[in-house]
Design a protein that fits this description.
2 helices, mainly alpha
Length: 135
């Protein structure tokens, strides 16, 4: 009976020792698993950041393109309005010459305005060409 009791005590002590010795090994396995998980999470985060950066870059490019389109429309509108102004001035000049109501000074002034508007149109067209090249 004593032998059985002593044997049981040794078995209990042995089982505790074995359980304690297995715990550190499992903790290292847990850390390896945790490291793998952390690496996976880090990769996912890096991919998400790269995707966000790419989307931001695309948005900036789209915004820049829209700004260029807006500038092009503005230049076209400016050219159109100057052409209308030239036509209006030419019409007034012809009317005045036919009626004989314009003095030579008035005629010169109108011709100067027409020339000035034509120069402005030429400059606007050059700017428009540059904008179209950028687009």
């Amino acid at each position: 009976m004593k032998k059985v009791l002593v044997l049981l005590v040794f078995m209990l002590v042995g089982s505790f020792a074995v359980a304690q010795s297995e715990t550190p090994n499992s903790s290292t396995e847990i850390t390896v698993d945790q490291e793998k998980e952390m690496d996976d999470v880090k990769k996912k985060v890096d991919k998400a950041e790269a995707k966000a950066k790419k989307e931001k870059k695309e948005a900036a490019a789209k915004k820049k393109e829209e700004k260029l389109k807006k500038q092009i429309k503005s230049k076209e509108k400016s050219i159109s309005s100057e052409e209308k102004q030239i036509e209006k001035l030419k019409g007034q000049l012809e009317k005045g010459k036919v009626k004989g109501t314009l003095s030579p000074v008035d005629i010169q002034k109108k011709e100067d305005k027409i020339a000035k508007s034509q120069m402005k149109i030429m400059k606007e067209q050059e700017k428009l060409k540059k904008l179209n090249r950028k687009l």
